[in-house]
Every structure is written in structure tokens, then in C-alpha cells.
Amino acid sequence: MDTTAEAAETGTSTRTGDCAAPPHRHRRPDGQDNYTISEVVAFTGLTAHTLRWYERIGLMPHIDRSHTGQRRYSNRDLDWLDLVGKLRLTGMPVADMVRYAELVREGDDTYIARFELLEATRRDVKARIAELQDTLAVLDHKISFYADAGRALGSERSR
Amino acid sequence: MDTTAEAAETGTSTRTGDCAAPPHRHRRPDGQDNYTISEVVAFTGLTAHTLRWYERIGLMPHIDRSHTGQRRYSNRDLDWLDLVGKLRLTGMPVADMVRYAELVREGDDTYIARFELLEATRRDVKARIAELQDTLAVLDHKISFYADAGRALGSERSR
DNA sequence: CGCTTGCTTCGAGTGCACTCGAAGGTTTTA
DNA sequence: TAAAACCTTCGAGTGCACTCGAAGCAAGCG
């Protein structure tokens, strides 16, 4: 269960003082490792419905359960949700993320496939960034145009 | 009709040798200024359906017509479609673009509003780029992890 | 003890941005 | 002159990613 492959999917489950920790409604408490679904809701901003849906469609690894069958999310799971959130922002379709999750579940034999998938994703993200920077340039151009026009209007008063 | 405001929306209608010209299926021919809808389809990759839909929802400026009522797109219109395409890539909802288009149609009184809208958009785009770069960092981290693991597996053979 | 939280399954609804097709007409072009 | 391209209006369909509600039951806590 705790293969190197899985470790690769989470990076740091126990460490907490990573680099940046942006879009969490509540900060994740230290030293704990099994969260109820409502806690995860609070941390991630996702709904319980969505969380269960992610599980249903195979986007999540196996989530631990309490002895009575309630979900207990680990830090690892939270890290995964973090990654999913990031990938979602890149516009990656859920189906692709599911594919990746499947590879992880399939175990150590899928290293190369996962590697390639990550590289392809990186290429996409880079391309996306380039597009956005292109757009930003256009926006900047327009904005400076408006700024100039605004100054002209301001000083000359009409026309 | 040909106010400075409108000019701001197109930048260069007559000039053609701008900086970059990425996602056009066909390059836009020089020296011409009224294209049929099928030409625009070829240039933009949008369908005629979508082009007419854009018009219906108010996303386009008024498109010229031939004396028999057929659409004749100008370079200006193509530039606008270019901008729309870029903004679409940023994830801006169509409704917001329509709002912007409305401001342009309303004329010179809306300078400030447009300026502000552009600045807000720029902020969004910048934020989006930052997010993506964040994601890219995660991806790079993972990729190097996999690369290392792959090397280890390759040399040690299993485990 | 009762309220809150959680579980399951089911299926329907939402919002966005198209996307398509059809009907019935006019115009352009080879 | 015939085929191809264009026009209009209408309405329905698609794909994605949720999103919600309800029914009916089990567990936890204060």
C-alpha cells in the first residue's frame, strides 16, 4: 500500500511546512491524519457530494473508513485533492485525472506511463501559460491605449 | 462610427505585420477588408453557426452587410474575434465579454468603465498565470521524482 | 435521548458554451 | 442554369463538471 509509487503521488504527507499553501478555506491542522468528510469540505471548499462523486468516478485512491464505515481522509488524500485542484485549474478534463489515478492504483508497473502523462501535462500547462501571457500582452497594450486616451481626454476636455 | 474608442478595440485594422499570429487555420489575406462568413470560418476555426450566435448574443459589433444582406466581415471584426478568442482562453465568461462589447457600442462615454474592466481582467489573467506556474512547479517536482525513481529502477532492477 | 453527522443509492437539474439540424428562402458563382 | 453559399428563425441536443434532493438508515456527542 505504501509503495514508492504512492509516495510519489503525495510528496509530503507528514511534513507540513511546504512552500506555499494558497486556496484552503481553513488551514490543515498539524499532526492529525484522519479527517471526517466535513473537515475535508472545510479544507478544500468542495462539497461532500463532490467528494463522494470523485470517489465514485475513480478520481480518488481508496479512502480509509472508520470501523463503522465513515470516511477518514488522510493527509495523503488531502495532498491528492490539492493536486487535483491544481490540475483542474489547468483545464485538464476529469477523465484524464481519472486515468492518472488509475495508473497510480495499478501500482509500480505504470511508472513510465505516469511519467509520460505528467510530461504531456506539463507541456500543456506551459502552452497555456504562453497563451495567457500572449493575452496579457494584448491586454497591456489596450490598457496603455486607454490610459493615454484617458489622459488626452482629461487634459483637452472632449474630442 | 469610427471613433477613437472603436479604434482602441482593434489596434491595427489596416496594418497586418503585427507581432505574432498564432491560431489561424488560414492566414488572413492582406489588403482586403470584407470577408464572407465562410472565409471567417476558415480564418478563425469557428463555425458559421457560432459566428451568427456571437452576433445574436451581442458579442459582436455590427457586421457590415452586402447590398443583398450577406455578412461582410472587416479586418476590424477579425481583430475583435481574435481578442474574443484570447479572452475565451483566459476563462472569461461570455457574459463578461458581451458586457465589454456593449460598452464599446455605447461609445466614448464608457472609457473609464472599459479601462476598469480591462484592468480587472488583467488582474485575473495574472492570477491565473500565477496559479498555472504554481501547478507547473508541482508538476516539475513530480516529474523529477519520477525521473529519479526511474533511474533507480533502471540501475538496481526492481525494489 | 435527541440532534447532528454520516452512510447508501437513485435520479434529476444546472449552467455554460456551444452545436446541430431543419425549413424555406435568396444570391452568387462556375 | 444548376450547384453552392448565404440568409432567417426555431428549437432541440451535447458534453462537461458538478450539484442537489430525497429516502432511509446507522453512528457519535453532549
Main attributes of the structure:
two-stranded antiparallel sheet; 159 residues; homodimer; disordered N terminus
Structure description:
Two copies of one chain form a homodimer. The first copy, chain A, has 159 residues and is mainly alpha-helical. Helix content of chain A is 62%, strand content 3%. Chain A contains six helices and two strands. Chain A has helices at 4-10, 37-44, 48-56, 75-89, 94-106, 111-156; strands spanning 64-65, 71-72. In chain A, a hairpin with a 5-residue loop joins strand 1 (64-65) and strand 2 (71-72). Chain A is flat, with a radius of gyration of 22 Å. The termini of chain A are far apart. The first copy, chain A, binds a DNA duplex (30 and 30 nucleotides) through residues 36-38, 47-50, 52-53, 66, 68-71, 88, 93-95.
